[in-house]
Design a protein that fits this description.
The complex is a heterodimer of chains A (292) and B (286). The radius of gyration of chain A is 20 Å and the shape is globular. The longest helix of chain A is centred in the first third of the chain and has 14 residues. In chain A, helix 1 packs across helix 2 and helix 1 packs across helix 4. Chain A has 8 helices and 9 strands. In chain A, strands 1, 2, 3, 4, 5, 6, 7, 8 and 9 form a 9-stranded mixed beta sheet that branches. Chain A is α/β, with parallel strands linked by helices and 292 residues long. Chain B is mostly beta strands and 286 residues long. Chain B has an 8-stranded antiparallel beta sheet, with no helix packed on it. Chain B is globular and about 45 Å long. Classes of the chains: A alpha/beta (292), B mainly beta (286). Chains A and B meet through strand 1, helix 5 and strand 5 of A and strand 1 and strand 2 of B.
Amino acid sequence: MKITQQKFIKDCQWAVNAPVLFSINKYQLPKLTLDETVLEGFYQQHIDNIQRQTRLGHYFEVLWFAILNQQHHIDAIKQSLAITVDKKTLGEIDFLYRLKRWFHLELAIKFYLCPYEVPSTFSQHWVGPNNIDRLDLKSNRMIDHQSKLLLNNFQTVGLNEPPTTIALMQGVRFIKDVHCFESQTAQQFLSKRHALLLQFDQRFQNIWMSLYQYKLLQRSMHHNIKWYYAHKLEWLTLNSVAPHNKVCPLPPFMVIALNNQTEVFRFMVTADNWQQESIHTIDQLSNNKVLL
Amino acid sequence: MNICSLSSFVTLVEVADQLPYLDIQHPKCHGKVALQGAHLFHFQPTNKPELIWTSSAVDFKPGTAIRGGVPICWPWFGGATAPFKGAHGFVRTATWDLISCEQSKESVQLTFALPANVFANNNWPKSKLTYVLTLGEQCQIELLSENLSDQPITISQALHSYFNVADINNAQVSGFDQCQYKDMLTGQTHTQSGNITIDQEVDRLYWAQDSATDIKSPLGEIRLTHQQSQSAIVWNPWIEKSIGLSNFNNDDYKTMVCIETANVDSDQIELSPGETSKISALFGWL
């Protein structure tokens, strides 16, 4: 997918403002500012690298590189450093940057769904759309492994003391749809979704529905709405609408409702058995006591 | 939430919708302390089993007390008397400031202070409450109360420690032999004879000044030393009461016992204006 300059800038803004699902030492992040002109310059300078990106995680790191790169007080940035001890690679760190002293920044971009009717505050109840990943497992990995990589190995990257570690998992949490799939107009959909999200103090950002419910919605929704299946890199923001992207893929997918080529709303669609399977996975794992 | 600069062994962890906590990874131990209540809810000395107990039913929701670890009960223990509200005081659900974080080869020391507005918001006379937590091979806890008002205040307090025993049927609590206690379930006074074994609901207040308690279980032996404390409470809800407890699984009673370092009931403390008092506890595996 050829990422446009407009999308790249929107994505940088999204990254700076996106909900934080999990963090370590977030208070140590500097106050971030964005200048569109500087981002345009960055885009032009790195256009080949940006347009080569196919994986959301890697693309997200490029966005953060652009963001850190334009912070005035940051005077050095190193990206994607492999930590090798005794010829054994322990892992790779996302960023090292210097703002008077060195900071180690680990990033993740994640999309989690809660299968229950009432969204849970337990992090083990938030599952990835493929039913593989979970918020608690990824958080624990960031705490126990990624954030500790440099604690005893800081010399391997040329530092004299351990840097301050910051970890940031940003993303979107989707709760189960209740009535949106019965909507006939975009306005109805938006007001039902707003009411649902409001019930939970807008702590969650969007909704998910099953493929079956999505098919019902397609049938009931007014024909001025067109359905667009977002490329993974568009799970942040829409690129330019690709005409070929109209065939319904296998779930999970993110679908964007368009009116006159403009995004009106989006949501996640799962396989029909996703809810049942994810609850089963959670129940199986609940025998292992998980604390935070 | 005010946080001082953290040592390299300590990180601030925030998970969406849950209580932020400090994660302590020191060569001598691993610990977790929620900023709400300055609440230690995980403590595991290196190469030893988890020492304190926290229920897996806890959802770490802001505003809800954590069932397990070491809740701080202050300035009253148990139910409130009018005009105050809530069980066990108001500091275990308040967010504390972390005012200092020191480290050494042996331990990490965290010092918390309760923000001044918390007293006012709870109609409590002006006071100062400081909590010092030192985590290493052992855990040392100190709670310092100071009366900053111009009138005497009466406080009762407890470091409501939950300990991990793995199997209550094979656990024993010693250190209270020949000690008088009040059975809180009946109101009657008795004298303890020998060790305490738990095979029913137990809620007892022992008048034991600066005592030491040993908790033997299949996991090993924990030594708890009570300091500046006139009373200790031994509690296990057993089967029936467990069912009604919030943030507590029905079978949780099988793996925990509470031994609380306290100044409660007839041992409550009166603090004159400007006066300070301290209560502390030290625990670790033997």
